[in-house]
Structures are given as C-alpha cells and as structure tokens.
Amino acid sequence: MRTELSNRLGIEYAVFGFTPFPAVAAAISRAGGLGVLGAVRYGAPGELARDLDWLDAHCAGRPYGLDVVMPARKVEGVSVADIEAMIPEGHRKFVRETLAEHGVPELADGEESGWRITGWLEEVARSQLDVAFDHPVALLANALGPPPPDVVRRAREHGVLTAALAGSARHAVRHRDAGIDIVVAQGYEAGGHTGEITTMVLTPEVVRAVDPLPVLAAGGIGTGEQIAAGLALGAQGVWLGSVWLTTTEAELHSAALTRKLLAAGSGDTVRSRALTGKPARQLRTVWTDAWDAAGTPDPLPMPLQGMLVAEAVSRIQKYEVEPLLGTPVGQIVGQLDRERPVQAVFDDLTRGFERAMARLSRIAARD
Amino acid sequence: MRTELSNRLGIEYAVFGFTPFPAVAAAISRAGGLGVLGAVRYGAPGELARDLDWLDAHCAGRPYGLDVVMPARKVEGVSVADIEAMIPEGHRKFVRETLAEHGVPELADGEESGWRITGWLEEVARSQLDVAFDHPVALLANALGPPPPDVVRRAREHGVLTAALAGSARHAVRHRDAGIDIVVAQGYEAGGHTGEITTMVLTPEVVRAVDPLPVLAAGGIGTGEQIAAGLALGAQGVWLGSVWLTTTEAELHSAALTRKLLAAGSGDTVRSRALTGKPARQLRTVWTDAWDAAGTPDPLPMPLQGMLVAEAVSRIQKYEVEPLLGTPVGQIVGQLDRERPVQAVFDDLTRGFERAMARLSRIAARD
C-alpha cells in the first residue's frame, strides 16, 4: 500500500496514525505507518523533549510526525491570565454545579489539573516547535489551519513536510496557499474538530481543489476496507485517530473509559462545542448532554471553553466518574470491540485492505 | 462492475438509480443500471399505471424498480381528513405568514396542489402495489422500513426482490427479520431521510449486521470513485439519487431550481424536519432557515408536517420563488456543475470507477 507520498516519507504503508500517546506513535511507525504524536496536551517544552527523545529511541529508525495546534494569527501581548479573566462567572457556576450534581470529587489542595489544552497558545506552540526541530520529525501537522508563514519556511529548511487539517475545500485551498505540503481532509464522522461534510464527499472535493497536492482522508476509517475506500476517493493516504484509543499501548489511565469505548456504538458520539469551543466529535456523555440541554449556557468560543472545562475534565478522568467520562472519538468507535496491541490492529488494517482489493478486483473484472 | 446481486437482477452495472422521474429511470435502466422510480408523489393509481406502462415501453427490455413509502404499521380507520385535523392552527399561521413575508403568490381558486406526499398513506401505497404487481417490476423498495409481511410474501410470489432503506444497523436487522432481500444503507450525507451515521461507517456496519444479505451503499455517491469506495466498504451495489436531478431527462419543471442545484456547494444542504417531519437532507433555503429559526414552531411529526407544507411547497415551486425553492438532495450536490443526459452521467460513473480501480491496483501492487 504505497503512494507517492508514502514513498516520499519512506514508509511502507500510507497509513498515518494520530495519537496523544508516544508508545502508540512508536508502535505505528514500527509497524510501517507514520505515527503522529499529538502535542496539544504538553505544557512545558521539557516534557515534549523527553517524549520525542523516547520516540527517537523506540521507532526503530522509522520516521514519525508531530501534531501541534498553532493558530495562524498571533494575538500579541495576551497572557493566559488575561484570557482566563474573560470567562463569565455564570459559566464557571454551571460547571461547578454540574460536577457537584454528579458527585465529582474536587482535586486535592495544590494538585495540578492533569488535562490541559494549553498547546494551542502561541508561546507554548512556539517552544514546542523549537523542540520539534531539534528532533528528526518527518511531518509537522497543524490541527488549526496552516501554521504561520515563518514556521512553514522553517519546516522547509529542515526538510520537514507540513500538513494541515481541513473540513472544507475552501479551507484546504487556504492551506495550500499558505505553503502546506499535505492536506488532511477531515470528514464529519471523524473524532475531534470536524465540519459538516462527510469523508465520502469531502475527500474527492479537497483532492480536486488542491491538486496536485497530496491529500489524506480522515474520518470514518478504522478498517482496511475503509482504507481502500479512502484511497479510492483519490487520497494518497489515510489518517486514523480513534482506532488506536483501545490499543494496549494507549495510556488512557482509565479502565472505565476503555470499557465505555469498547461498549459504544457508532451512534454514541456527538459533535459538541463543550470540549474546546469548536465543534468536536466525542463520546456522548452525561457531561455533553448537560451542555446540550435547554436553558444551560452555550459553550464559549475557543480557547475560553477549553480553559473553562480543563479542571472539570481532569477531575472526571481522575475519579473515573463513568457517566461523565468521555474523549474525542469518531463514529468508528462502534467498530472497537477489544483491546489489542497496535501491531495487531495494523495487521488487520493491511489484511482488510488486501481483502477489499481482491473483492473489488473481482467486481471490476466481471463483464 | 458486476456483483452477485447485479447478476441476480440481470443488470450490467451494480448501480441503482433512484428518481421520481420515469424518463430518468428508463434512461438509467437502458444504460445498464437499475432505474428505480419513486412513487411517493403519485396519488391516483391510474397515474402510476400510466407511467409504469411508459417505462415498460422505454426500458428496452431492461429491468426497473419501484420505490414506495409504506409504513410497516397500519393505522386502522383513519382518513386523510382525520389527520389533517390534527395540524395545529399555530403551524398553519406560521406557514401562511412565512409565505406572505416572501411574497409567494396563492394558487388560483380550485387549483390543485401539485406537490403531494400522500403516497405514504396505507390506502394509497396499497393501490400502488396492485399496479406494481401488474407490471414487470424487478425490485420493490420501501423508504420507510420494511413493507408489511403480506406485501413481502406477495413480492416473493411474484419473483420481485424487496429492499428497504436503513440508517442504522439496528434498523437493517429489523428489515432482514421482516424478510427483506436487500438493505439500502443510507448515510448521513444522503439526500432525503437520513440518520446520523455516515456512509463510510454505516455501510460496513450494516454489511456485518445482515450478512449474507446484500447491501447497497447510499449517500455521498455521485462519481465512479465514490462507487469504488462504496463497493470497497462491502456493498454489493450503490444507490444514487441526487446525481440524476440535474440530468436533461429530469422533469424538475423549474429552471431556477436547476440553477440552484448547479450553483450549490457541498455545504449548502441541511438535515431538516421541515419537509416531512422526519430529518431529511435537502437544499438549505430561506424556507428551511425559517423553520430552524429561534421562536418558530417545531416541525410536526410525520405525516402531519408533509401535509402542512404540501401546498406551500407547491406554490414555491409553481411561482419559482427562488430564495425558498428547494428539494431533497445530498451533499454531492457540490459536484453537480452542468446539465447532462443520463447516459453521459452514467458513462462518467463507469469510467471513473475504472480509473479508481486502476489507481487502487497500482497502490496495492507496490511493495
């Protein structure tokens, strides 16, 4: 399963695996795909440097990528405290009351919130980039549109390919014009931030819009058959995130969350602004239902909502308050039915792809 | 492009084309697919008999299908007038005022509303079936779940295959248990009634759930590349509706609506209950926006909503009030950019499929 793009990156399979867990990223790269580590939850640059060092030692010399969240427009002279101060008290009250209503315990005095999404901050993302360019990162992806022009230039100087996620052809063209090398077309069914257009429609639309730039199909892909479908749509590779969440290497730190993921059906996700302020697909929970209910506050715009709920998410996770426990995940969550090593998942992907190709060839050959 | 199912039906391509227009259905069947005529807008059985006679004369001996809308559960002793009486006056007032606000002219005295969706009524659907079984209909599809048991039996006696649309694996299993021969897995991106699960995720889920029953992939399919994707997902055929709307054989009777379809992007549809009472994807218009606006009445349940808006839709269409003019259509509307004969569309589908297969084979072969 090779394409021009996979050849350019020197990987055996055109399978890009996004994950917040270094052990998963390394296993994906070792299996022949490209593991892409999500950096959004890293705070201090030292933590990221430590994990990239670890990746260097555990990828068996295979390439890997890094996914940062860097807004294209910089807001000058605004501190985290300035932004925190913009959160209305009514919203804080709603969070406090919802947590209390469901018996979510408080963190201990002085205990830090483990769940963070401060990676989107310009200063944090910049320091992450300094770390990234000190490591043999093969691909630099940006989950929030194209990186700023100087970052694209710097990546090019370092021989690092850049990718950006797009939920519409219009966004994809904007990314191309910003000098991006690869567009990830992220369909409605994907986990995390998504638009309204599904992978089936979005992929070929983006392929046409940015041709000859390579496009990765993202959203709704968790089997080899779905990989074949994504490639049939003109993509030069596929971008998978949800399928790795229930691998044995994933460090969810929550048996309850793993159980929920394995039990969930394809209809058990919701596209909600409750997590970050932008529509993001995630497990539907009592927590997302609370934000969707009539008469409750509307989620705040990004980045306020993420800051507002960071501690709440942390507490829900730490104490495994099952009804409220969630995670970004796509509609393929319905296909996840057991914990397995990354290599076993990867073997299924390649075998499923071969099976789909054999069946398709028979259908095409009949006359 | 043959599958077990297409062989069983004696068609050259596993392409099922749903359309409300006899001329389009005939052209699809002549091109080597299976034209499936939608019967929901037919009232008197005589009209349907006339059009099926016409199909018999214009399909060049190729098979065709019929799509009825028949609720599995019968409501005894309820007349159209009884149901009409259940529509609240507040809803009627909102319709009157919205039409007046946008200057939609009234029908002439005694003029009948041309747009109807009375086909869902048990009595109407039953009389349609009597007509259907008098014609060489090869496939009987039902857009509202499985037909009643006696209809399934009757179809079997006549050697007519039955199909039912499903938006979830649960519904698909219910259809199978009712004795249906084929499940049409209708994804979120499809035009008309849809669920939340996209074609990429729904198709393989339904294939697994009803195996070995054949499944058709529906939603997001308007090119040969998308056909290849649908078949890669395990479908034994694809079900296309939107792509025929801008063919020269389509009798939209509205140049303005054709213009709107050709101009629309993939993001210009909305899944709304405004048309029938169940979520149905359609062009987003001033009319659907009015129903979605805060402080306006919620659409009524099916069948009340369809009855409530029938005359309004008829007036909007007759007078071509462009801002309000819409139609059920899927997200592939963004791909429709010119009027063409059905045969030209069909040629593109088969050529695109071959192109996708050639590209996929190259990707699979590289090692």
- The fourth-level CATH homologous superfamily of chain A is Aldolase class I
Shape of chain A: globular
What is the residue-mean pLDDT of chain A, rounded to a whole number? 92
What does the radius of gyration of chain A come to?
Answer: 20 Å
- Whole-number tally of structural domains of chain A: 1
CATH architecture of chain A: Alpha-Beta Barrel
- Largest interface by residue count? A-B, 51 and 52 residues
Our count of helices of chain A gives: 14
CATH topology descriptor of chain A:
TIM Barrel
Oligomer class: homodimer
The arrangement of helices and strands of chain A along the chain is HEHEHEHHHEHEHEEHEHEHEEHHH
Measure the end-to-end span of chain A. Answer: 27 Å
Observed structural traits:
14 helices; 367 residues; TIM Barrel; FMN (chains A, B); homodimer; 3-stranded antiparallel sheet; 11 strands; alpha/beta
